[in-house]
Design goal:
Helix content: 55-70%
Radius of gyration: 16 Å
Strand content: under 5%
Number of helices: 6
Number of strands: 0
Structural class: mainly alpha
Order of helices and strands: HHHHHH
Largest sheet: none
Length: 130
Amino acid sequence: VPCCTLTAMKSWTENDRREMERHAEDGFRLLRDRFDFTAQVVVLHHRMQARGYPAILPQSLHYFSAATVEKIERCAEVLVVADVYDALHRVNSGTGGRALNPSEIRGRMAQHLSEMASLVEQIYAAGVLK
């Protein structure tokens, strides 16, 4: 399904959602040969969302130390925040089909990312998000 078609739709069917979710593993496969750390961040951030996917994370090509795994997880959390922030700036079914004001976006960020509330507040406090 072309991206522009999905954006124009009021809501996605389960088939649309399954089709879209394939991009996580496709992106992982494209990145892992040269950018394995980044591939792990990209695929992991999808697992941290409300309806996380893929069900099973693909195997990395490299062994990562525990410290590196923590960095991957932290980067994935930041990417989730950016992804949700981006989605809330678009008119779509998740925004009720209308543009949200900054206060509404911040409130929805807190709602959608309640487990990452501290990170969201740190990013807002740093002036990265407005």
